[in-house]
Amino acid sequence: METLKVKRKKIVAANFRQLLQAELTERCRLNPSYSLRSFARSLNVEPSSLSQMINGKRPITAKMKLRLGAALGLNTEQIRRLPSEDFPEEREPKNLTLDTFAAIADWYHYAILELTHVDGFQPNIAWIAQRLGITRTEANIAVERLFNLQLLKKTSQGQWLDTSDNGELTHLTPRQTSDAARTYQCQLLELSKKTVQEVPLDRRNHTSATFCFDPEDLPQAAQRITEFRRAFAREFKPKKSKEVFQIQISFFPLTKLKG
Questions:
Q1: What is the CATH number of the domain that holds 22?
Q2: Are 72 and 21 in contact (CB under 8 A)?
Q3: Which residues contact 59 (CB under 8 A, 6 or more apart)?
Q4: Which of 24, 58, 81 delimits the end of a domain?
Q5: From its phi and psi, is residue 130 left (phi > 0), alpha (psi between -120 and 50) or beta?
């Protein structure tokens, strides 16, 4: 897994195809009107060719990788270190490695998995994008990644199945962290902040408490929080799901370490 600076932004990618996906997703996030056609124009490549490369329908040759990498501002060594190939076919989906987590660290990957359980779910990119308030490009790339990692599967009838153990996918162990993990948590905090401003109080709950605490008890406290979060999700798992909600618990020190 490489962490690369592309146009002054840090992007984590396991391969060049994933780098293209991440860069396109980031540009769409910053500018919702940005499109794959705009991305292709900036790279001086045909939109149809770029679409096929991003979607895994066309191999990325060494020559093309050099050309696109240079257009993204990467040096030759960075381009050389990044393989063109995608993830292997077989992946253990339940316990994510740092590399795999980095591929689906954006919050909407997990929301899409949960969305498949909602009554009236439509396996349609436009519908998913509208329900989650994300761009179609973000939705399309996220869905493809979930299928590649076997976190989503399609039945013979065309239905999408969440294979992440009914939403109890292990993101990372408590001792693991990474730039992607930090980005994921920051995204959730931004979503929570936005919700405070835009969603009526009768459709959300934001509460907090400030108290003295012994840091030596942090491992035990973290375990209790994990147990509560999982029990809460199980208890309120409805027979008929209507919406996707997020629970996030932040527990952190307000005082600084003594210098």
A1: 1.10.260.40
A2: no
A3: 53, 84
A4: 81
A5: alpha
Domain count, the chain: 2
Same domain, 68 and 107: no
- pTM assigned to the model: 0.69
Are both 71 and 97 inside the same structural domain? no
Residue 233 has which token pair? Answer: 């999700």
One domain, residues 160 and 239: yes
Question: Could you tell me which of 2, 244, 247, 4 has the C-alpha nearest to residue 128?
Answer: 244
Q: What span, in angstroms and rounded, lies between the C-alpha atoms of 195 and 203?
A: 10
Q: How far is it, in rounded angstroms, from Cα 15 to Cα 21?
A: 10
For the segment 160-211, what is each residue's pLDDT rounded down to a tens digit? 988 876 545 545 554 555 677 788 889 999 999 999 999 999 999 999 999 9
Write out the two tokens for 195: 């919700």
Domain-located, residue 142: yes
How many whole angstroms from its chain centre is CA 63?
29
Q: How many CA atoms lie within 13 A of 107 on its CB side?
A: 20
The tens digit of pLDDT for each residue in 18-69 reads: 888 888 888 887 888 888 899 999 999 998 999 888 877 788 888 888 899 8
